[in-house]
Amino acid sequence: MGPDPEPSAEKAHDDPPLEAVRRVDAVILQKFRSMTEGLPAIDAFPQRMAQLHRSATSPDGRFGFFEPTCHGHTPIDHGWHETWEAYFASTTRRLFQWEQAAQGPNQDILDLMEPFFSNVIPRLLRPLETDGRSITPSLIHGDLWHGNVATDADTQEPVIFDAASSYAHNEYELGVWRQPWNELGAAYRARYHEFFPPSLPVEDCDDRNALYATRVNILDSILYRDDDEYRKMLIASMRRLVEKFPGGYEEWKGKQDDLLINSGYGQGWAASSSEDMPHSWICCFKYTIKSRCPWMREGGPKTLSSLETTWRIHN
After folding, report:
1. Residue 181 to residues 77, 166, 315: CA-CA distances in angstroms?
2. What integer pLDDT is reported at residue 259 of this predicted model?
3. At what angle do helices 248-262 and 278-291 cross, to 10 degrees?
4. On the chain, which terminus has fewer CB atoms closer than 10 Å, C or N?
5. What pLDDT is attached to residue 19?
């Protein structure tokens, strides 16, 4: 898709002439729905989106899409990627190229791009798919602002349209819900997470949302090239993340490893089981602290035999 150099049926809404229909490769016919304006019900809409994200998943477990899709007039060539980090970095780098072409070169953005890609993206996305954690690629709408959603006047069910879909991390859908101009805001995000809890690490959820919102800022800066406010928002959001995560993934990983030795939980287990070998309880604790096992909160194993059994089961 993209900018149409010739007339198309999509542009000729009122009785399109036959010639216009002949010029397009395909025509979509669908049921007419009478829709009411305004935001969909906060009790129904987030739940429906969570149901979509849980039920419609990538057919082969990869992130991407079969064909390029468009955000406004900006084509996104998704391709297929084994990890969410790889997909996000690859497609976002291409969007930056589009943004610089649309708005003209900007040195602030160019200076921020290196730490953004080398520090911020790995720091916030790599923990989703390492140390036993994983996410399932979900089918997302991709541009879910309040102008792309309505309510069916007959069924009172939410209706979404004008999608820019791909198989992505489900939380990416909520990036546009962070934008100050979007009437689908924080209350809808909070309600959504009641039906689809944040991915692990949970403590990164808000910063991941800020990262996803930054990508939305790139797309808006491309689309509204005559309004520099969107570029200003982009630079501000990039700078905030770059300044917050100067050490990237490696610094975070080092801190997580330090927790394995210095945690009070581990010391408590050793004190309650004086005959345990230190190597055994440290190895077992190393796994549980990373995967947030429920039995860790229940006090953990108390004997050497239970520690060894747990290590064999959970390792």
Report:
1. 27, 24, 47
2. 76
3. 130
4. C
5. 53
Residues of the chain with pLDDT under 50: 1-18, 20-21, 264-315
Burial class (CB in 10 A: 0-12, 13-18, 19+), 71: buried
Give the separation between CA 70 and CA 163, rounded to whole angstroms: 8
pLDDT at 262: 62
What's the CA gap between 240 and 178, in Å, rounded? 15
Instruction: Choose among 160, 171, 158, 146: nearest CA to 53.
Output: 171
- The encoded tokens of residue 89 equal 């970095």
Sequence-distant (6+) residues with CB within 8 A of 233 are 217, 220, 221
Cβ-Cβ contacts under 8 Å for 142 (sequence gap 6 or more): 69, 71, 163, 164, 165, 166, 168, 173
Task: Give the per-residue pLDDT at 22.
Answer: 56
CB 32 within 8 A of CB 125: no
Q: Is the pTM above the cut of 0.85?
A: no
From the list 41, 29, 35, the residue with the least C-alpha distance to 154 is 35
Alpha carbon distance 89, 166 (integer Å): 15
Which residue is associated with the tokens 């309600």? 191
Cα 167 to its chain centre, rounded Å, is 10
* Rounded Cα gap, residues 71 and 73, in angstroms: 6
